[in-house]
Amino acid sequence: MRITALAGGVGGARFLRGLRHALDQRSLDRGVHDATPHTSADPGGPGSDASETAESPPHTLSIIGNTGDDITLFGLRVCPDLDTLLYTLGGAVHEQQGWGRAGDTRRVQEELLAYGAAPDWFGLGDLDLATHIIRSQWLGQGYTLSQVTARLAERWGLPDRGIELLPMTDTPVETHVVLAGDEPSAVHFQEWWVRMQAQPPVERFVVAGMDRATAAPGVLDAIRNADVILLPPSNPVVSIGIILGVPGVRDALRGTTAPVVGVSPLIGGAPVRGHADACLSAIGVEATSAAVAGLYADFLDGWLIDPADAGMSLGGTEVAVYDEALLMTSVEKAARIADAALDLALDLAGKR
Amino acid sequence: MRITALAGGVGGARFLRGLRHALDQRSLDRGVHDATPHTSADPGGPGSDASETAESPPHTLSIIGNTGDDITLFGLRVCPDLDTLLYTLGGAVHEQQGWGRAGDTRRVQEELLAYGAAPDWFGLGDLDLATHIIRSQWLGQGYTLSQVTARLAERWGLPDRGIELLPMTDTPVETHVVLAGDEPSAVHFQEWWVRMQAQPPVERFVVAGMDRATAAPGVLDAIRNADVILLPPSNPVVSIGIILGVPGVRDALRGTTAPVVGVSPLIGGAPVRGHADACLSAIGVEATSAAVAGLYADFLDGWLIDPADAGMSLGGTEVAVYDEALLMTSVEKAARIADAALDLALDLAGKR
What we know:
Structural class of chain A: alpha/beta
Oligomer: homodimer
Largest sheet of chain A: 7 strands, parallel
Strand content of chain A: 15-25%
Largest interface: A-B, 28 and 28 residues
Radius of gyration of chain A: 20 Å
Shape of chain A: globular
Helix content of chain A: 25-40%
Strand order of the largest sheet of chain A: 5-2-1-9-10-13-14
């Protein structure tokens, strides 16, 4: 089974780590050679298809990561969402924080600040900095962000586990926030999100560079050729919304025959994590699970919601109520939620 | 008194730290307002010259640092000699090692190596990396190496102590080593020096970029306007020799009226530190104190040597034998050696 997901940072990464666990469990439960819609049509048996041997994971996961959060700090290119995905899926994330490396220190950044460098509001651990240094070096050598990300993913063992991490675009883009007020002013998304804690009201989001961006290699095919497409409970505006703005992505989602199933990032009108409500307010959308689903109405087939939101109905989209709170408080809970989203998708495809 | 020195890395830095101590001691011993040849002609007294108040050090030290060792590692611009000067004069150097930061760790570099980055033979501590990151950022923003170095020096308190650190040139240059052998091959100086431990015989040194280099702002004036010029016991080929190759530097040394006094980097035919013998051999010069002085013959006025080398005579250069071994094994010993070099210079100028 080929699954493709669009993802932001912490929420997306936790969901996808759970999904990978759920997929591994499915393979174990059902055996490797007849596990999936994709392989069930395959005669199976030794030698029938080299790509379907027991060594390669029977379910593959392509992740299209948001790069709108990307920022250049201390001259180094930082890709917060891609890094959170790498560290979380690679088993190296700072679990409580949700981003950055477990057991990291801040020796280098303290030195940078001692030199009078800015900013101090974006925390960069020492281990984390190594990622930004090597990424910047490779980008400087002419490799694309896709190529760089693939090399980073190797180190975290993602290909071996059937995970492909694709930046949404290789074109440098940055989400900027135009602040509401009499004086026009704009800040980088990270400055608004991290330093200002998403407090100042937003006039609008602008994705600098998107006008010349194209989808990175593999992105549109990952949508077109998927068996299932999942939207993790990532921020609908500044994560999923930014990916949907990459030319061709939304059209590919509308056109694909695969079921598209999303997991609500809101529970009873409040975001599980982050400042999704402030982002929705900025684009004039109500902070409800139904309103978020409405943003995806043109391609969304299924929507998994929290019991607190039970009762909503969406035209053209199948709503499923999860059997407990939609909270990814552990890998196991995230795996169960991912499993439920996958079941919904397979039901919609008539394949379960 | 305005002193100008040409300097490489560890030996130069230790000598100049000693010199700064010696100069501070001279100011204390003699009082601030009539301490020096430069100020003795000054009527003195309050208000006579704002630059000669008690707040500004009465003796200033301009250091022209070698940048031929500079190298780009992990995409970051590393200036080993300038950094050794900054850290040593700033009181932050790793004393036993002679370079790098005291109490440094290698967390970032270990991560870089885990990502498959190279090289592993050049040690970069975490605190040290902050210097390279911020330097690279500032260079990327369009500041010159002189401007960047001045900003770094601020952090280490050098201006407050009357020390000006000037890179020899703002043009990126790199000393490369053409290795002897049937197959022509060249490596960066650092690779030959650090990884190969200066073992492979050298065909010649080539300074890439020197053909378009110009002296950095202030360098030639620091030589022309000095009261005393000192050559620390730095490597005569790959440190002092490289600086002498910057257009205008050698001419300025020949033309200045200030006494030029050097301290021998060799004792009884062996370098005190580093691989000066291998470097001298590469340029076909005997590894003796006299032969090194011969490299400077066209501008050298005084030469301070170890007792082991007593008896040499140099045409046109006054030779002084130091009263103990010419070893800078402590700050105090380095200060005494610097003081002796300074005395020799003042004698030659008839000013002591």
